[in-house]
Design goal:
This protein is mainly beta. It is 10% helix and 55% strand. The chain has 2 domains: 176 residues, no CATH class; 139 residues, no CATH class.
Length: 323
């Protein structure tokens, strides 16, 4: 499994929605009513909570010789740039450090010199993987390992959300051999169940030459990109700008009543599928009669292993006013 694909896909989906948000409704309910929005201006704040869930429970059949491939560094021709010491299970190991260019981003692999076991991977954006447990002897090479039912290894994955540097999706990927076949094959089960909830406040810092920037965020946005946090049409335009109009397949459109940060609201629900860098992503937008984007729901499969779900709710914005 390509570990980096998880991070690439998270980044892509977050760009689509602007931010992944979940609101824990605790306010007193208001009946009826609606909200309208204005163009975002410098100083405007947008408040969001978010919920990101990454789950997996999949079993694949593969050669026994490949059962532990996710735990070993096997990039042919790579040259270590230096050596360092790393600790695993209270023991210190001498490790080679490799700089690997993965889709234009440098990843540092920390690999036990004698065995090739990957103790950790660190990316420039702050994403990292760390070996936290295994039934294997990490001093042995992959050829020396005896793979049996119950052989297991676990990595802790921490992926930062682009544009929200203080926020990360974190979870344990547990890989376990569940069956040995009569031939050279085995079955490997991968599980993960992680969820992250938090609150984020964005404040527009500048508008220069059509480039919008938020405080503490180096990302550059178009006007639609900046407004995609709270305006349905802007969010849809932003998707078209990033992925192209042909990437979108519009689905069902219907009415529904939902609870929002502003109270109970009658909304239009627009379903669609978006081709996000070659991966099909299902999205539902919930917006009001004045185009205010109250909620976004997204789900997608990651590398046929992980299920990624993001739920978005608008908590508050200086550019959104109750009528």
């Amino acid at each position: 499994m390509d570990k980096k694909i998880i991070v690439i896909l998270i980044a892509a989906i977050v760009i689509v929605a602007g931010v992944c948000v979940y609101f824990a409704f605790g306010q007193g309910e208001k009946l009826g009513g609606t909200e309208a929005y204005t163009d975002i201006k410098v100083g405007d704040e947008i408040k969001n909570d978010f919920d990101v869930t990454l789950t997996a429970d999949v079993t694949v059949e593969l050669p026994i010789s490949e059962a532990l491939s996710g735990m070993y560094f096997q990039i042919v021709g790579a040259t270590p740039i230096y050596s360092t010491l790393k600790t695993f299970n209270d023991k210190v190991y001498e490790c080679f450090v490799y700089d690997i260019d993965e889709n234009g981003e440098i990843a540092e692999y920390y690999v036990i010199e004698d065995s090739g076991v990957i103790l950790g991977v660190s990316y420039e954006d702050g994403t990292n993987y760390k070996l936290t447990g295994t039934s294997c002897d990490v001093t042995k090479t992959i050829e020396e390992q005896e793979v049996t039912v119950g052989t297991t290894f676990t990595y802790l994955m921490r992926a930062l959300i682009p544009g929200m540097e203080a926020v990360a999706v974190e979870g344990y990927s547990v890989n376990t051999v569940t069956e040995i076949g009569n031939g050279d094959n085995c079955k490997l089960n991968t599980t993960m169940n992680s969820e992250n909830k938090d609150m984020l406040t964005l404040k527009l810092a500048s508008i220069e030459g059509g480039v919008y920037k938020f405080e503490g965020n180096d990302n550059e946005y178009t006007k639609d990109g900046a407004m995609s946090y709270y305006a349905y049409t802007s969010c849809l335009n932003d998707i078209k700008e990033i992925y192209g109009e042909d990437s979108i397949v519009m689905g069902k459109k219907y009415s529904e009543k939902i609870v929002t940060a502003y109270g109970n609201r009658d909304v239009t629900v627009q379903e669609m599928n978006v081709d996000v860098f070659g991966t099909d992503t299902f999205i539902k937008f919930y917006y009001g009669s004045k185009d205010v984007l109250y909620k976004t729901y997204m789900e997608t499969a990651v590398d046929d292993v992980f299920e990624l779900t993001l739920i978005v709710d608008l908590v508050g914005s200086d550019a959104v006013k109750a009528l």
